[in-house]
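We treat protein structure as text, and this decision shapes the records that our systems exchange. This encoding replaces a full spatial description with a residue-level series of whole-number codes. Below, we set out a record of this kind in full and without editing:
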Amino acid sequence: MQLIDIGANLSHESFAHDLSSVLDHARAVGISQIVVTGASEQASLDAHALAQQWPRFLYATAGVHPHHAGDYTADTHETLRGLHRHADVVAVGETGLDYFRDLSPRASQQFAFEQQLELALECGKPLFLHQRDAHDDFIAILRQLRDRLGACVVHCFTADKRELYECLDLDCHIGITGWICDERRGTHLIPLMKDIPANRLMIETDAPYLLPRTVRPKPKTHRNEPRYLLQVLQAVAQARGESIEQLAASTTATAREFFRLPG
């Protein structure tokens, strides 16, 4: 059984002391490839450096998360453009809108999002998208260019049926994390899993965030790791009425096609 974690923030400082061990643990449970998320200019540079250090196992995205949109400048755009000249940088993003915390002004978020959509048009790579509490604006901006863009994934999907269907109607892929394993806030996702076509469903950890609450024995820290993708796989498979082997095969095939990863 092979798995692909489509979103892990492995350049996060919490992995600085033991990343090699973390990757060994991931391989041991069948994870064959990991896409390292670039969520800021520096994180995108770091993600690419990791992809170069572990070729054909790690890949990178390059983009600016809405939390950092206030820092998006012309120089940032040129840095991202340069990163996207590399084959191991496989998607534009993480980009989108986040009105839950508003860590950047909404106008800045929208500007940075629009700039990165233009970058995706230019480089022809898929989009790795983030949205939280900003769905209507997010969809409106994306819809303007959707017919010219390539593949898009709404990563870490946590919203409701209406938002899911509007994303699917725009031919977006959906990324599911350990949020579905959280009995306090993720149970609404369970009945939605059967509504996602198999060829548009992918799984991810969003490590070091969103440690699945179903991990046993309970880890000593709250740091999530790619090896815990198994808990996401199990939860989604159960919700869809599929075997874990069946879901592993379909999500891996979908991720390889989406990010153009080698088999």
User: Anything to note?
Assistant: Residues 12 and 208 are 7 Å apart (CA to CA).
